[in-house]
Amino acid sequence: MGKYILALDQGTTSSRAILFDCEQNILGISQKEFTQIYPREGWVEHDAMEIWSSQYAVMMEVVAQSGVDAADIAGIGITNQRETTILWDRRTGRPIHNAIVWQCRRTADIVDSLLADGLGDHIKDATGLVPDAYFSGTKIKWILDHVEGARERARAGDILFGTVDTWLLWKLTGGEVHVTDYTNASRTMLYDIHKLDWDQKMLDALDIPRSMLPEVHSSSEIYGHTEIQGVRVPIAGIAGDQQAALFGQTCFQPGDAKNTYGTGCFLLMNTGDAPCRSENGLITTIAIGLNGTVQYALEGSVFVGGAVIQWLRDEMRFLTESRDAEYYAQKVNDTGGVYLVPAFTGLGAPYWDMYARGCIVGLTRGTKREHIIRAAQESIAYQVADLVRAMEKDTGLPLSQLKADGGASRDRFLMQFQSDILGRSVRRPMIRETTALGCAYLAGLATGVWRDTDEIQHLWVCDTTYEPKMEAPRREALLGDWHRAVERSRGWAK
Ligand SMILES: Nc1ncnc2c1ncn2[C@@H]1O[C@H](COP(=O)(O)OP(=O)(O)O)[C@@H](O)[C@H]1O
Ligand SMILES: O=P(O)(O)OC[C@H](O)CO
């Protein structure tokens, strides 16, 4: 049996490859950022070939740099930015359009027409989702509508659809395997999460031929092989990145929850084998498909989390490095009454407003750059607090602690403020690469590296715990003003 697992983590801003050994030590990380394409206001695209080439490059690089023999790699796990939609020609392997990224708002009017046709309840009942341009279904329709001849070619079986996992799997296996896993299928707004089948009513409503959709498999099995250094290595785990992080944080029991602070913020709670329907703006999704069954999760998705720090750095030029945000935030005692609502691509959970746009309120003549930087960081924590409150209302259970991970969880100011504004402990694990670790676990379970989840459960080790220090009245006052600021951002682009 191989001693190592290779995790491919294809995120919104970068492609990463991480090599783990069977004691979950990281032997090497290779990472490559790729181009973000903004063709119009509110539109976001990636070049699908650049996704593939950057992911392939980091995979080969990490193996070469670590000096590991490819024959010792037990398996490869794939985890990916979810919902991002790629259509390609089965014969040439070339995409027929840029990937439409999960953040892209171009299909808001298609969602409006689904709602006008009375499909809102059906979408919620069958797919567990809130009708929104976030999910893949309307993005597929947009490409089929706008690329000449695409729908006819799709009907003839010449065009394939995939989320990023499916695209990478297809490329890695030389075009032999067209498969996704349950977690990714549940993000398309085309998949019935109860019957575990594509939903014909949604396919008809969006005029999407079933023949272009991938087969849906479990999250841990051997899907196919790829060649590294002349060795055939099995691809043995697939999960959307947020579900992979839930798994990597060992949230295996109903009630276990984590929040990932990446480009966006994603709070997921395992609800076991029973799907929990939200009455408070969250979505129901598949947490994992394992051992012939699926587990469900309740999810709150926030579109702009760590990305607001990137925006301060790249567009506002307030920062040279993302990591400087924490230093500047602590140069002032508070935001001076400033609130920043980063609704750059609308608002996700629990508001679901495709037409909201970002705003900064409470500016005075005394407002400094540091106040705005701090307000941006606090906005990440406020958005997560809104998700936690919605989740507690839905489940009737107070969250005892929050497990945190993702790039922006390095920011200690943010983690402390998060704990303060929640009034809960926030715990960060020793291994921050929980997304990659989650898909490594899935690949390792399918190839015998780990026996079962009981064995994995004991591997989670806490690095830092943040305890709340803020008084409840101050917390409520801050949250009250945050909600007033959110109201200012709503419906702006309508
Ligand atoms: N030290 C830091 N402080 C604050 N934000 C950070 C820090 N490091 C990274 N980030 C933010 O985290 C995000 C990247 O996190 P990552 O988990 O790599 O995201 P993704 O998987 O979405 O590409 C970026 O938006 C970046 O601005
Ligand atoms: O790339 P990330 O880590 O921001 O994750 C993106 C999510 O999967 C979108 O649903």
Automatic annotation (TrEMBL):
Which keywords, in A-to-Z order, does the entry hold?
Answer: ATP-binding, Glycerol metabolism, Kinase, Nucleotide-binding, Transferase
Please provide, in alphabetical order, the Gene Ontology terms of the cellular component aspect for this entry: cytosol
Q: Which GO terms label this protein's molecular function in UniProt?
A: ATP binding; glycerol kinase activity
* Keyword presence, ATP-binding: yes
Q: Where does ADP bind?
A: 12, 16, 263, 306, 407
Residues that bind sn-glycerol 3-phosphate: 12, 82-83, 134, 241
- State where ATP binds: 12-14, 263, 306, 310, 407
Please list the GO biological process terms of this entry.
glycerol catabolic process; glycerol-3-phosphate metabolic process; intracellular signal transduction
Keyword Disulfide bond recorded: no
The UniProt entry, under PROSITE patterns, shows: DEP, FGGY_KINASES_1
Q: Where does glycerol bind?
A: 82-83, 134, 241-242
User: Pathway membership of this protein?
Assistant: Polyol metabolism; glycerol degradation via glycerol kinase pathway; sn-glycerol 3-phosphate from glycerol: step 1/1
Pfam families xrefs: FGGY_C (PF02782), FGGY_N (PF00370)
Q: Which reaction does this chain catalyze? A: glycerol + ATP = sn-glycerol 3-phosphate + ADP + H(+)
**Activity regulation per the record?**
Activated by phosphorylation and inhibited by fructose 1,6-bisphosphate (FBP).
Leading EC class = transferase
Q: Domain (DEP): give its ranges.
A: 301-336
Give its E.C. classification number.
2.7.1.30
The record's comment on protein family reads: Belongs to the FGGY kinase family.
Question: How is the subunit organization of this protein annotated in UniProt?
Answer: Homotetramer and homodimer (in equilibrium).
State its role. Key enzyme in the regulation of glycerol uptake and metabolism. Catalyzes the phosphorylation of glycerol to yield sn-glycerol 3-phosphate.
Q: Which HAMAP family match?
A: Glycerol_kin (MF_00186)
Q: What is this protein called?
A: Glycerol kinase
What's the source species' lineage?
Answer: Bacteria, Bacillati, Bacillota, Clostridia, Eubacteriales
Q: Which gene encodes it?
A: glpK
